[in-house]
Amino acid sequence: MQPLDYIVIAGYLLGLLTIGAVLTKRAGRSGDDYFLANRGTPWWALGASGMSSNLDVAGTVTIIALVYQFGIQGFFVEMRGGVVLPIAVWLAFMGKWHRRSQVTTTAEWMVLRFGQGEQGKVARYTAALTYLVITVLMVTFFLTAAAKFVAQFIGGVDPTLAA
Known about the structure:
mainly alpha
């Protein structure tokens, strides 16, 4: 690399650190500042944020698995129901819904929707249990995938045993 390359990289890293320091100070004022940008984010940015959370490595791995299993039809299955429709819903509806509801968490939404009584408690416990189960399954999925991936690079390890 040339000296100019190092200067560009150093400038980029310095810019990132500066932006991070400014935003950390701003976000540290309150929970609303940290989680919701002081409720100042426009609805379309909330929708785009929700949409972007659907575009991660799990989606890519899912598409690869479907194509492997079903051929090119697997790609169309994922595009029709796995990516395109949720993204459209997030962009069109969820951003405005989140802005109008004024809730931060699923538990707050359950109180807003079902109240403080018995129905609200059941809804909050059900949501918490659902998130717990989904999180355990996701961690299991990613650890299994990582084990199979790493097994490809470690000599003498059968990747089918990494499950």
